[in-house]
Amino acid sequence: MMNDFIHLDAYLVQIRHKNLHISQKKQYLCTAIAIMTNTHLIISTSNDLLRVAARHILYISSDGNYCNFFQTGGEMRLVTFQLGQIERMIADQLPELSQNFVRIGKSLIINLNYVYYIHVPKQQLILVDNQQNRYTLSASKEALKALKELIENGKL
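User: That's the sequence. What structure does it adopt?
Assistant: Structure tokens below.
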């Protein structure tokens, strides 16, 4: 929670900066609002409900008709939804933050904020959370190459 206030203060300082274009100030303000509202993704079934802060989602992996949510700090939760359904929930419920989540191939959605290392030939993607925990994932060379190029070109 304290980190949220530190980030919020940094964004507000940027908004007050005189040399920023109005579109840049708008972007900083939208991020500050997202921090203040502590946006959550809510996944509900007839039996249970999962409510997780978007900033805590590292990645989501599919396993047939189920998905595993991996969160910062090592928490993992199984939900009874397909990856495509989760992808739509993120777009619908987190419109301001959905650009942070990218589908990688058929079985992964990752939070771009935690991408640390991409090694295309080894088909390896490493995410690192705020506590410096490492999460090594496998993805196709094509998917990793596309992700690498998007990040390099500043499109993500």
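Residues 104 and 143 are 6 Å apart (CA to CA).
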